[in-house]
Design goal:
- There is one protein chain.
- By secondary structure, the protein is of the alpha+beta class.
- Helix content is about 25%, strand content about 30%.
- The chain is built from four helices and eight strands; from the N terminus they run H-H-E-E-E-E-H-H-E-E-E-E.
- It has helices spanning about 5-10, 35-60, 150-155, 160-165; strands spanning about 80-90, 95-100, 105-110, 115-125, 170-185, 190-200, 210, 215-220.
- Strands 4-3-2-1-5-6-7-8 form an eight-stranded antiparallel beta sheet, with helices on both faces.
- Helix 3 crosses helix 4 (about 160-165).
Length: about 220
C-alpha cells in the first residue's frame, strides 16, 4: 500500500467506521462518543479536501494556457484538530500496537534494522465470536500472547509478529487525548498549500506518540 493510499484509507474511512467493534477493549467499553466521531470526521474531511486541492493544482500547473485563481483568506492555515478518543494499546519487546476506536484500525509501531521507526496501518479484522488467542502458542515467562484484534494480526502476519516479538504486558484500553496537525505552508499570496500532517496520541503510561503521514514513521516523547 503506497503512502498516499494508506493516508487516504486511514483518514477517509474514519467517520464511516466510528461504530466499528474490534479487537481492542471488551465490547462493554466500545462506545464511540459523539465528540470522537466529530473529531475524526473533521480530520477525514480536512485531509480529503487537501488531497483534492493538491490534485487540482497539479492539473492547473500542467496546463500552459490555464490561469490560476488565487483565493486569499485572513488565516488560511487550518488549526489543529483536538479531542478525546478511546484507544487500546499494548507494549511489545520491539514496539507497540495501538487500536483506535473511531476508525477501527490497528497502528503497529516497529523499528527496522537501521533503527528507523516504522508506522504501519492495518484494518482490524477481528469479529466477535472468533477465537481470541491460540492455546498452542505458549509465551516465555513474563511474556504474553496478544489477544483479539491484536492477536489475530500478530498470529496471521509473520512480518508483524517477527518485528514486534512477544507482548510485555496485557492490552490496556483508555480514553486519551488525540490531535491532528495539518501539514503544508502558506505562500506569499496567503494561500494554504496542503501537505501530509501528523497525529498525536498519548499513551496510558504517559509518553506522547507522534505519527508522521509523509514518511509513515513514529516518534515518542514526554
Amino acid at each position: 500500500m503506497s503512502k498516499m493510499r494508506s493516508v487516504i484509507c486511514l483518514l477517509g474511512c474514519l467517520a464511516l467506521l466510528a461504530a466499528c467493534q474490534g479487537g481492542g477493549p471488551p465490547p462493554a467499553a466500545q462506545t464511540a462518543t459523539a465528540e470522537a466521531e466529530a473529531l475524526m470526521k473533521a480530520v477525514a474531511t480536512a485531509y480529503s479536501l487537501a488531497v483534492t486541492a493538491t490534485a487540482a493544482q497539479a492539473e492547473t500547473d500542467a496546463a500552459p494556457t490555464a490561469t490560476p485563481t488565487i483565493t486569499a483568506t485572513p488565516d488560511p492555515m487550518p488549526a489543529p484538530v483536538v479531542g478525546s478518543i478511546y484507544v487500546a494499546e499494548q507494549r511489545f519487546e520491539n514496539g507497540w500496537m495501538f487500536w483506535l476506536q473511531p476508525n477501527g484500525q490497528i497502528w503497529v509501531l516497529t523499528e527496522d534494522a537501521a533503527g528507523r521507526k516504522i508506522w504501519s496501518v492495518y484494518d482490524d479484522s477481528f469479529v466477535e465470536g472468533e477465537a481470541e488467542s491460540d492455546p498452542l502458542i505458549i509465551p516465555p515467562e513474563s511474556r504474553f500472547q496478544p489477544v483479539r484484534g491484536f492477536g489475530k494480526l500478530w498470529r496471521e502476519n509473520p512480518e508483524v509478529r517477527q518485528a514486534l516479538g512477544w507482548a510485555l504486558d496485557t492490552e490496556r484500553g483508555h480514553t486519551t487525548r488525540y490531535e491532528y496537525h495539518h501539514g503544508g505552508t502558506v505562500n506569499a499570496e496567503n494561500q494554504y498549500l496542503p501537505a501530509p500532517g501528523y497525529h498525536q496520541v498519548r499513551s496510558v503510561a504517559g509518553p506522547l506518540f507522534r505519527f508522521n503521514e509523509e514518511s509513515f514513521t513514529w516518534e515518542s516523547g514526554n
